[in-house]
């Protein structure tokens, strides 16, 4: 496939807004490379409270903000902000909500305790991204998800939003890292995930909601999986291989001789041609 690709990047972490983890590095430089090769990109991440709005020059996009996302019958306002990475001529959109993201820590509190509402934060983030892309009226060829906060997006895209003309033909690539290992989510997560178009049978793997089952749910609705970290859970890697979808092995993106940009581009083409 030689025509320009339109890729929606959805990530838990993007450098320089957060420290340079492997996920944050790839989520920063891969979109730039796709854009510089002629592709179209949009990038999204959560607006964590530790991100300095003034220093990073975030500002609200009024035309995209203003809707509510309902979780547990409670309306949660969706605020959209944007910032530019000037050296890359690239914009990043931020999903914001005071209840979920205005805290100074990312996944755990100051005592290193996993936030008890992390399940709802993931629901809000995934649905918030898709609703914002609808408002942008931008049709992606591929949605590339990075990090556990994006793991519900494949389910919502393939079930709740599958009849939307913007998403009907979109393919999902899921990058697996080691950002969660043994954490568990609220025991009611499976029922909270449900919405029009998403039925209980679609989420059976979340019967015991934890990091592994959430990643498996993402894999079930993905068209391809990237092993994006050398310490990806062997259980998840095996689950992906057994799911009969393409799997891209790990390539170190920070190796000076790394071919990861070309590898990802070829993988995108494979996904678009074969799934």
Offer a few descriptive terms:
alpha/beta, Rossmann fold, nine-stranded mixed β-sheet
Overview of this structure, please?
There is one protein chain. By secondary structure, the protein is of the alpha/beta class. The chain has a single domain (6-45, 114-274), classed as Rossmann fold (3-Layer(aba) Sandwich), CATH 3.40.50. The protein has 9 helices and 11 strands. The strands form 2 sheets. The chain has a 9-stranded mixed beta sheet with strand order 3-6-7-2-1-8-9-10-11, with helices on both faces. A two-stranded antiparallel sheet has the order 4-5. β6 (79-85) and β7 form a beta hairpin. α7 (211-220) packs parallel to α8. The model has no long low-confidence stretch (mean pLDDT 95).
Q: Gyration radius, to the nearest Å?
A: 17 Å
Percent helix: 25-40%
**Helix/strand/pairing category:** alpha/beta
Strand/helix succession: EHEHEEEEEHHEHEHHEHEH
Termini, distance in Å?
13 Å
The tally of strands reads: 11
Strand order in space, largest sheet: 3-6-7-2-1-8-9-10-11
Shape by Cα distribution: globular
CATH class label: Alpha Beta
How many domains comprise the coordinates?
Answer: 1
Mean pLDDT rating: 95
In DSSP terms (H or I, runs of 4 or more residues), the helix count works out at 9
Oligomer: single chain
Instruction: Flag low-confidence runs.
Output: none
Q: Profile the largest sheet.
A: 9 strands, mixed
Q: How much of the residues is beta strand, in percent?
A: 15-25%
CATH superfamily: Glycogen Phosphorylase B
- CATH topology, anyone? Rossmann fold
The CATH architecture comes to 3-Layer(aba) Sandwich
